[in-house]
Amino acid sequence: MKGIVFTEFLDLVESKFGLETVQQIIDESELESKGIYTAVGTYKFTEMVSLLTNLSNLTKISKNDLLKVYGLHFFDALANNYGVILKSYKCPIKLLSSIEEHIHVQVRKLYPDAELPEFETIEQTDEKLILIYRSSRSLYTFAHGLMEKSFKHYGLDCDIKYELLKEDGTEVRFEILKK
Q1: Are residues 75 and 120 in the same domain?
Q2: Are both 19 and 53 inside the same structural domain?
Q3: Contact (Cβ atoms closer than 8 angstroms) between residue 1 and residue 115
Q4: Is the pTM of this model over 0.70?
Q5: Alpha helix locations (H) across the chain?
Q6: Do 139 and 174 lie in a common domain?
Q7: Cβ atoms of 151 and 118 closer than 8 Å
Q8: Domain final residue pick, 16, 42, 61
Q9: Contact status, residue 146 vs residue 174, Cβ threshold 8 Å
Q10: What per-residue confidence (pLDDT) applies to 175?
């Protein structure tokens, strides 16, 4: 998992819960990296799971709720670092429907070893998008936060519903309606 995912997660934890909480979840996690991350480094996904689990235990907020908030936060990091890509789209539905064909292609150029989720567009109109999310990491609520924030980025509201196609969250159907 790319380091930017870790650095932004710890930034979110610090801004929402304080530096002491950051240190506590690092101390309580068994991290090969010792909690020292660089945005361009690559780290084991198990470290993120450990940090997230310890944050959830400490705050009594579910992991899925934390991941959604993190997705909302992470969109800003993407906008700051990859704003050129966002500017090439006029609406969030076009942006989200192009994840596989454009955005992930660009990410793989920068990070050839990145393990990215797959997004399959099932239906697309100007008002509606249906996507199938697939990932062994089951971070669908993180994806939900990113989707929601993409609409806010374009000054629009949306209604996002999802259905677990596999109970473990490795395959999820998203239905996104522009309001």
Answers
A1: yes
A2: yes
A3: yes
A4: yes
A5: 3-17, 19-28, 45-59, 63-87, 92-97, 104-110, 140-153
A6: yes
A7: no
A8: 61
A9: no
A10: 98
